[in-house]
Structure formats: C-alpha cells, structure tokens
Amino acid sequence: MRGLRVDARRISDGELTAMLRLTDWRPRLSAAWLIGLDRRTRFRQTLGELLLAGELAHAGKGYAFALTRFAEPRDAAILVAFLERHLPAGPAYDQGYVLDALVHLDALLGTDHAARILDPAAPWWRPGLAAEPSGFGDRFGKVSALAEETAPKAGRGDGVRVTPP
Length: 165
What we know:
By secondary structure, the protein is mainly α. The chain has nine helices and no strands. It has one domain (2-150).
C-alpha cells in the first residue's frame, strides 16, 4: 500500500482525469483509489457524477472508496443518491460495496443515512439486500484502516506534483 500512496502523491490531476475518461473500469478504479488515498477532494463532483451514472461495473467501488476517504456529509449524500437511483433497478455490481461504504461513512460522521436504505419498509428493499445489516461497514472499515496507516490525514490539495528524492 505504501507504493500506491507514493503513486497517489506523484500522479498529476491531468493524468487522473485522463484515466477517469477511459471507457474501461480498471483505469477508473485505479484513478479513484489514487484520488482517495491522496484525498483530492477537487475530484468529488466528477466522482459523484461517474458513480451516479453507473456506467461501468466495478468502477463504483473506487468512487465509493474515494468519497469515503473525503469523509464529509456531502459525500454521504452522493452515496445515498446512488443507492436510491440504482437499488430500485435490482442488483448491480457496486450496490453492496457502496452500501458498505455508506455504513462506514455513517460511523465516521455520526450519521445514520444507511438506516433508511437498510429498512425493510423502504421502496427499494428486496430480500438479500442485507441479510446481516450489522455486518455492513466491516469490509470497508478494514480497507479504510489500511489506507489510514499509509496515507496522510489530508491530501496535498495544491495540484503540485511530488517528485522522488
């Protein structure tokens, strides 16, 4: 993870933008992870738009990771909007991961947005959505803990490329 952190500090915003424009989920997932590790909040709107569009399976996992690393109420709102838009359509690749991210973000923010998503009375509820709701957030918590061990509390936020010593 430390090597990934170094890459997150070195890669330019332009390179990340180019990766996010590709139509393959792999570079988008990678870009989102790098954005999240370096907490480049200036990508919040772009990541939110890409997540809500739901165009590429698996890429949403990276978007959710980055938004959870930003850890602000507006990031939770983006995750909720994704779930409200995509849960009624039925199972999709990233819904469980985004829900897991929302539960984790709720714990960080002291909010309970996920509670209404997990409510069996909700219009999008379906059997199997959360067989064990108390387990949501654990997977994401482990990933976030690993990221915290290797990443600074705040991203550089200045757009300056870091060159190796």
